[in-house]
Amino acid sequence: MPLGAQNFNRPKALTNYKPIPLPLLSALRKLKEKKGWSILEMSEHLGLTQGKLSKILLTTVKTASPSTLKKLEAFVAQNTEQSTTS
Asked: Are the CB atoms for 76 and 31 separated by under 8 Å?
C-alpha cells in the first residue's frame, strides 16, 4: 500500500507564534559573533533555554512564541547595555 497523505501527520502551526523581527535576529547574531557561543549560557539567566537560542541562531527559525520574543528582547537589551557601559 503506497504511503499517501492520510498517513502523514503534519504538526499544526501554532497560531500564537509571531515573526521574530529582523533587527532582533541581527542583534542576536552580532552578540554571538562578539561573545561567541558563551551567550547560550548567558541566556539562561533570563529563562531562555540554550536549545531555543541555538535553534534560532543556527537555523532559519522565523517565528517564536510571545514569551520567547520577550525573553529574546530582554536578553539583547541587557547584553547591549552591558557592552555599551563597559
From this structure: yes
